[in-house]
Design brief:
It is a single chain. A hairpin with a 2-residue loop joins strand 5 and strand 6. By secondary structure, the protein is an alpha+beta fold. It contains three helices and six strands, in the order βαβαββαββ. The termini are close together. The chain is globular and about 35 Å long. Strands 1, 2, 3, 4, 5 and 6 form a six-stranded antiparallel beta sheet that branches.
Length: 94
């Protein structure tokens, strides 16, 4: 079994980082959040840039996908995200 967040995400390349005025091109950009899903319940929003998964930094988009897949369903996970230039922590039930 794999955890489910209910998000569509995409890698952050230098062009996208510049378009969103992001300070760096790493992590995973949340493109959409499924209403009523775990990510929505945890307060994630489209446009959030996920920087870490349970304290583990995301060097690349693939890290996000791997961490989601390796997390057991029902696990509480803290995500550090960059939102509107500010870093915030969100807890989701994966």
């Amino acid at each position: 079994p794999r955890s489910f967040l209910g998000v569509e995400s995409q890698p952050v390349d230098p062009a996208l980082a510049e378009a969103f005025d992001l300070p760096y091109a790493r992590g995973a950009l949340i493109a959409s959040v499924e209403p009523g899903g775990p990510a929505a319940a945890g307060g994630l929003e489209p446009g959030d840039l996920v920087l870490s998964w349970n304290g583990r930094p995301l060097a690349a988009f693939e890290d996000f996908k791997i961490y989601v897949q390796l997390t057991s369903p029902g696990t509480r996970v803290t995500l550090r995200v960059l939102r509107n230039g500010q870093t915030v922590d969100r807890t989701v039930l994966a």
